Amino acid sequence: MSDFMLRFYANYIRPQLHEIYEGEYVNCFENVTDSLPEDLLPDLQECEEFTAVHAFLLGLRTGAGLSSAAR
């Protein structure tokens, strides 16, 4: 991933995810993090970073494609 996407994740996406952790899905996230051994938590965080960034990019591409179809 580019440096921009890593900074974008750290400064925009991660804070948005932490708001979700405080919402209705808090139990789901707690169950996953509590059931993992501590040595696997960094792997979970990297998977979360990768998935969130690529989901954001998919949303951008999908939105761009839909804007031309809406005309």
Question: Can you walk through the features of this model?
Answer:
With 71 residues, this protein is an all-alpha fold. The protein has helices at 3-21, 26-35, 41-69. The model has no long low-confidence stretch (mean pLDDT 86).
Topology:
Blueprint: H1 3-21, H2 26-35, H3 41-69
Percent of residues in helices: over 70%
Helix-strand string? HHH
Radius of gyration over C-alpha positions, nearest whole angstrom? 15 Å
Pick out the low-confidence regions. none
Task: Give a nutshell description of this structure.
By secondary structure, the protein is an all-alpha fold. Helix content is 82%, strand content 0%.
Which labels suit this protein?
71 residues, 3 helices, mainly alpha, single chain
